[in-house]
Amino acid sequence: MREEGSDPQAVLEELARIIEKDVKRFTLRALGSMCSKPLPISKIAYLMAIESNLGDPGVWGGVARLEREVIEGLGTLLSNPRAVGAIVSGGTEANILALWAARNYTKKREVIVPASCHVSFYKAADLLGLKVVEAPLKRDYTIDVDFVRRNITKETAAVVGIAGTTALGAVDPIEELSELALEKGIYLHVDAAFGGMVLPFLKELGYKVPEFDFKLDGVCSITVDPHKMGLAPIPAGGILFRDDEFVRPIAFETPYLAGGGVRSFTITGTRPGGPIAAVWVLLRVLGRRGYREAVRECMRLTEMLVRGVEGEELELLMRPVMNVVGVRAKRLSVREFSMRMKRLGWLLSEFPTHLRVVLMPHHTEELVKELLRDLKRAALRDHVELRATLKA
Ligand code: 0PR
């Protein structure tokens, strides 16, 4: 920090120069991100509520009401309008809250997760002192339920199922997990951080979609992130609990607040109301039809990519269930394929077995065509071939 402040106009211009390139790269070449470009109206809403703090909801009663309505909206989408929950900093915090609730509710210290789970579950287990049992995946990249059944012990607090895995968008058989959880009396958490705002709309569009939400009696909590497929600005993760009985074991009273004592069950104290206002506006402005149309468009681009990938050089890891596609080059290591795509200017996510492409609402048909052309180029066996096509 300098002694004297600088000219505001000049500082803002410098800021614009610094972040401009990021925004452009994100919009044009980042197909590895699970976050969408927030709709402009959500940015207005965010700014309107930027001063609010849900750490003191008695003072910010209006925004607290918005959060209740957003939770009711997301709960209704996931078959439980009476769900109890919060808009939090992201899927990571939501998953930590779920395992925290599961540990305190059951007073047990083991959790079974699929090998496909997001790193946030390992963070949660580390923080909470839980032992992680990793269930292998079947050939379709979903959790091996028989393994889960065989590995439930008297110390098992929870099992986790994923509805839209990070690497491939695969959906675990939540219905089977739900039956198992009810039978064995364990907590079932569903991580639908990405899929929670895709699957209900895919169903409305006529896709065959497995049940994954509170319709299944064994599901105790669900992560669903508006800052992924909800078109909302960051940070807007979501945690929903079936019932208040799962929240009570992680709730703390803060009696001294200016707005009056409240119960808090999030990790953070001071919490921004801006993202909540943004999500509230989006749910109202878009409605189910708006989200359904966004999902329809994402799936149209996904199909385009899938059709284009068939051929000599490239292959899909699996037929995508949602707008997440795993691609690999038949004759190259993932590392080499990834480096070549980077050199061609693409920002994709690199997993040990494949590159991940996520088709989001802000992407276009032209972008997918360009991507396909470059995927094919990059997948050529050697650099000589690659250089020749680049020159052409
Ligand atoms: N659960 C699932 C299934 C996820 O895929 C993710 C993150 C989380 C939970 C955690 O969510 P937060 O990151 O909100 O805490 N999924 C993305 C991923 O790891 C996050 C991401 C988003 C990464 C944008 C890169 C990026 O540009 O791929």
Topology:
Layout lengths: L7 H22 L10 H9 L12 H17 L6 E5 L2 H16 L3 E5 L5 H9 L2 E5 L9 H7 L4 E7 L11 H11 L2 E5 L7 H6 L14 E5 L13 E5 L2 H4 L4 E3 L7 E3 L9 H36 L4 E3 L7 E6 L4 H10 L5 E2 L4 E4 L6 H14 L4 H9 L1
The protein binds ligand 0PR.
Summing up helix and strand content along with how strands pair, one would put the structural category as: alpha/beta
Strand order of the largest sheet: 1-7-6-5-4-2-3
Let me know the largest β-sheet.
7 strands, mixed
Radius of gyration: 22 Å
Record field, number of beta strands: 13
How far apart the termini lie comes to 51 Å
Helix fraction bin: 40-55%
Mean pLDDT: 96
Instruction: Give a list of the ligands.
Output: ligand 0PR
Order of helices and strands: HHHEHEHEHEHEHEEHEEHEEHEEHH
**What share of residues are in beta strands?**
5-15%
Q: Uncertain spans, ≥5 residues at pLDDT below 50?
A: none
Number of helices: 13
Principal-axes geometry comes out as: globular
